[in-house]
Amino acid sequence: MLNSHVRPALSRVVTPLGAALARAGVTPDAVTIVGTVGVAVGALAFYPRGRFLAGTLFITAFVFGDMLDGAVARARGSSGPWGAFLDSTLDRVADAAVFGGLLLWFAGVGNSPVLAGVTLFCLVGGAVVSYAKARAEGLGMHCDVGVAERSERLIIVLVATGLGGLGVPYVQAAGLELLAVLTAVTVGQRFVEVRRQVRLAGATSEVGHR
User: What is the distance between the alpha carbons of residues 84 and 66, in angstroms, rounded to a whole number?
Assistant: First the structure.
């Protein structure tokens, strides 16, 4: 949902940087891997200890690698299926680290079983959102629908967690609960969309055989 509005603006910023990195010999795969490692290290080093603001700032510095690797690939003329596969797969690793770090806090020192459960739901639900799209595309359909794609989910969890680290009351819990609802809605939207396409394909096939 945010992609169509935010990504064009960010692209104007990262494209020159991607071109500069490409000229320096940096590969898009290296950018993808460094970005994922940075997010994972930040999430798992800071969040389980309750250092939410520092962790969020650290993670945010590496999150933009998700767009930067594409800019480097375009500058090098090396975009292809391997890069897309690596990027999508490592996105799941980064997401798991963010929510896993929060889960460790809530299940441990944070002592909040409810928020631990909500965080676990967001982790699993986010994986289902991504899998539904990948599976639909593997079956020859498209599934770019939903109120909470990866960009939205990351923004919500990072903003809520960062503000929580600043001491703003209730915002982290509210953000995670909102994210859980939006994730569930997105899963439902993708099920409905794929079902609609399957039915449409079936109806078209029946008409073609008459």
Answer: 11
97 exposure class (CB count in 10 Å sphere: 0-12, 13-18, 19+): buried
What is the C-alpha separation between 28 and 71, in angstroms, rounded? 8
66, 87, 91, 95: which one is catalytic?
A: 91
Amino acid at 135: R
111: phi then psi, degrees, rounded to nearest 5: 50, 55
Q: How far apart are CA 27 and CA 22, in angstroms?
A: 7
3-state class of 7 per DSSP?
A: helix
**Using CA atoms, how far apart are residues 43 and 94, in angstroms rounded to an integer?**
9
Domain ranges of the chain: 3-208
Q: Please write the tens of the pLDDT for every residue from 25-72.
A: 888 899 999 999 999 999 999 999 999 999 999 999 998 776 788 888
- 36: tokens are 């994922």
Structure tokens at 45: 């080093």
91 annotated active-site: yes
pTM: 0.88
Architecture of domain 3-208: Up-down Bundle (1.20)
